[in-house]
């Protein structure tokens, strides 16, 4: 009871609390501690004392102790194979072969998958010239672990070293049944070649290329035949390889090797055929080495034509890849066709053109067809100019015109090119039919213009009139068409008809360039010297527009008429124009009119007339106005010039105010001058 009480009273020592938990200034790493320990050699142990065995009893005692140590180590951990191997090697060193075998056998019972164990066991038997025991071990090893190549290599090497060639061959055959990796087959082949067994080696190669059907193995087989001067066999191997891989699994290295073989045999035509066959079937990115070797071959043995063929072939390959990747890449087709046209036969060119035009744009929108349509144009031009085949050219044009969806959009250039082609073929009726069809199906300004120009060149004026009528029915707002029609009638001398056309034109409710039409009508009447009609035209035009250029042109017309009173009429028009433009918001136009009037008076008027116009000239003043941004916010102020005309009664106060401001500024300037001059006099007197 007292003892238990005393034990209970024993206090557990307190753990010292670390007050300062900040890191020490000098940090010591584990590496540093180990380095210091090594430098001081703290763990240096003295070597064990040497023992000398003098009699058999001591030896047996030593053996017993060592065996006990080894057995204890094995008992502690049976799976550590190094202990077994050390034990067996120790027994072997004492020439206790039987004991060593027993240890190895016990170890194999523990771990028969350990490769090192088998190797050490077999090496021990071979060292001690126990050949049958070694064979037995190798047989057990390759039976137990047939995928460990090292056993097979060691076994075959041992048999070969013993001169047992048949036994080594038998081991190799057993090995080959497991279809091992490539190096094993090469070892077998090299073994047979060491004993000049070429036929046996060939048989092995035949099996090898079927087990490992890689291109490099076929090439090695062919080179083996070539090396032993069996050239026909080598060629047959290459041909079988090409057939074996077919078009789906083509490899450039096979064809390069085949071509080099034929090159060594001086079969240059065969080489060329091989290269071309391969280049036609292998994609460009996989045929870089092939192109390179073909180029080198042609440079060595070919002519200039052959080298050019290579370059063309390479580029053709490149374009083929591009159009395969994107059949609607029309720029790639153009480049490809340009290349083919420069080199290939007509049939080959046609084939490429047919492939290109087969890629119709998927969407019926004109912007997608703009590049595509040039394929048809180039095709037609090639057939006409290069192939000299008018019938095929006609078929190309007709096929393209049938393909275009004319209800949605058309290409005027196709119709025009077709018509021009028929004219070159002297088929005027077909050309007219083509243009007439185009106008009926899909009328366009360009088509009308070309058709009219054609008929004009043929001097078919009645046809021209009909075409112009159709043209103006299609586009009555086109001023150029009206003008050209009227000019045609003028050339033909039918003035009344031309005037009627002009009258019809200016009466149209909507025109694209009315000012050009009116000017043309006025010029027409001036040419006909119809002064009164021209004057009436100007008056009619001024009823529609009060543009300053019309007034100036009217005044200059009156001046240039050369009749009596022309100056007075001209001045009257200027006055009328000035009066009409007083309410005009565009002050620059009014200023332009006054400047034109002033230049007229300077040339033809008197001093009083000139002075009168000068009084009408406006005053140019600088003003400021607020500027607003796009979003409506205030963007500051900007300066601009404004014109104040004396005639405007509303602007009179402004003019009066402006005159008073100028007078005040002048007085201020004079005052400053008078104040400044006495000071200068004083300075001069002092000096």
From TrEMBL:
Keywords from the UniProt entry: Coiled coil, mRNA processing, mRNA splicing, Nucleus, Phosphoprotein, Repeat, Spliceosome
Coiled-coil stretches noted in the UniProt entry, renumbered to this chain: 567-594
Keyword Magnesium: no
Domain Pre-mRNA-splicing factor Syf1/CRNKL1-like C-terminal HAT-repeats intervals: 82-366, 389-539
Single Gene Ontology MF annotation: RNA binding
Comp. bias regions, Basic and acidic residues: 667-679
Disordered: annotated segments: 666-687
GO biological process: spliceosomal complex assembly
Main localization of the protein described in the UniProt heading: nucleus
SMART domains the UniProt entry points to: HAT
Gene3D superfamilies referenced in this protein's UniProt entry, alphabetically: Tetratricopeptide repeat domain
One Gene Ontology cellular component: U2-type catalytic step 2 spliceosome
Bilayer-spanning residue ranges: none
Annotated compartments: Nucleus speckle
Keyword Coiled coil in record: yes
Role this protein plays: Involved in pre-mRNA splicing process. As a component of the minor spliceosome, involved in the splicing of U12-type introns in pre-mRNAs.
Family stated for the protein in its record: Belongs to the crooked-neck family.
Protein name: Crooked neck-like protein 1
The species this protein was found in: Callithrix jacchus
């Amino acid at each position: 009871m007292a003892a238990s009480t005393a034990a209970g009273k024993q206090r557990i020592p307190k753990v010292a609390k670390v007050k300062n938990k900040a890191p020490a200034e000098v940090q010591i790493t584990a590496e540093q501690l180990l380095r210091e320990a090594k430098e001081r050699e703290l763990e240096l142990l003295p070597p064990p004392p040497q023992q000398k065995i003098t009699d058999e009893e001591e030896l047996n005692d030593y053996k017993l102790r060592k065996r006990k140590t080894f057995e204890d180590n094995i008992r502690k951990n049976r799976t550590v194979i190094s202990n077994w191997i050390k034990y067996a090697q120790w027994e072997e060193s004492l020439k206790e072969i039987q004991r060593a075998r027993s240890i190895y056998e016990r170890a194999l019972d523990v771990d028969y998958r350990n490769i090192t164990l088998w190797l050490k066991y077999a090496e021990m038997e071979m060292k001690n010239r126990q050949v049958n025991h070694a064979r037995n071990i190798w047989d057990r090893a390759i039976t137990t672990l047939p995928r460990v190549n090292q056993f097979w290599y060691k076994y075959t090497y041992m048999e070969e070293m013993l001169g047992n060639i048949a036994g080594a061959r038998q081991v190799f055959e057993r090995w080959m049944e497991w279809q091992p990796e490539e190096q094993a087959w090469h070892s077998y082949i090299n073994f047979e070649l060491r004993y000049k067994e070429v036929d046996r080696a060939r048989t092995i190669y035949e099996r090898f290329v079927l087990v490992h059907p890689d291109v490099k193995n076929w090439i090695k087989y062919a080179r083996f035949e070539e090396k032993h001067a069996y050239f026909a066999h080598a060629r047959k191997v290459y041909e079988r390889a090409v057939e074996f891989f077919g078009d789906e699994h083509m490899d450039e290295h096979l064809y390069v090797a085949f071509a080099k073989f034929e090159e060594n045999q001086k079969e240059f035509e065969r080489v060329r055929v091989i290269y071309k066959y391969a280049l036609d079937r292998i994609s460009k990115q996989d045929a870089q080495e092939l192109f390179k070797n073909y180029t080198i071959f042609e440079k060595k043995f070919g002519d200039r034509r052959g080298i050019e063929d290579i370059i063309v072939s390479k580029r053709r390959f490149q374009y083929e890849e591009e159009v395969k990747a994107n059949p609607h890449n029309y720029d790639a087709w153009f480049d490809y066709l340009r290349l083919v046209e420069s080199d290939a036969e007509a049939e080959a060119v046609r084939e490429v053109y047919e492939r290109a035009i087969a890629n119709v744009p998927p969407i019926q929108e004109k912007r997608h067809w703009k590049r595509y349509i040039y394929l048809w144009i180039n095709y037609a031009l090639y057939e006409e100019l290069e192939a000299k085949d008018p019938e095929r050219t006609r078929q190309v044009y007709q096929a393209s015109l049938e393909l275009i969806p004319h209800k949605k959009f058309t290409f005027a250039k196709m119709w025009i090119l077709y018509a021009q082609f028929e004219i070159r073929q002297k088929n005027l009726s077909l050309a007219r039919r083509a243009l007439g069809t185009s106008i009926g199906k899909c009328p366009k300004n360009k088509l009308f213009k070309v058709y009219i120009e054609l008929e004009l060149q043929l001097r078919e004026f009645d046809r021209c009139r009909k075409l112009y009528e159709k043209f103006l029915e299609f586009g009555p707002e086109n001023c150029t068409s009206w003008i050209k029609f009227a000019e045609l009638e003028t050339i033909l001398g039918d003035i009344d008809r031309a005037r009627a056309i002009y009258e019809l034109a200016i009466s149209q409710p909507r025109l694209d360039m009315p000012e050009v039409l009116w000017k043309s009508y006025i010029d027409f009447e001036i040419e006909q010297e119809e002064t009164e009609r021209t004057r009436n035209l100007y008056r009619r035009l001024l009823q529609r527009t009060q543009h300053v250029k019309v007034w100036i042109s009217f005044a200059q017309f009156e001046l240039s008429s050369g009749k009596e009173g022309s100056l007075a009429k001209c001045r009257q028009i200027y006055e009328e124009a000035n009066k009409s433009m007083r309410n005009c918001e565009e002050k620059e136009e009014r200023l332009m009119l006054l400047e034109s009037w002033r230049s007229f008076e300077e040339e033809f008027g008197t001093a009083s007339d000139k002075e009168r116009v000068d009084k009408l000239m406006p005053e140019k003043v600088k003003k400021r106005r607020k500027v607003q941004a796009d979003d409506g916010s205030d963007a500051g102020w900007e300066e601009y010039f404004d014109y104040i005309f004396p005639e405007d009664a509303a602007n009179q106060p402004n003019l009066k105010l402006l005159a008073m401001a100028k007078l005040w500024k002048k007085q201020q300037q004079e005052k400053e001058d008078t104040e400044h001059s006495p000071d200068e006099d004083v300075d001069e007197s002092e000096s």
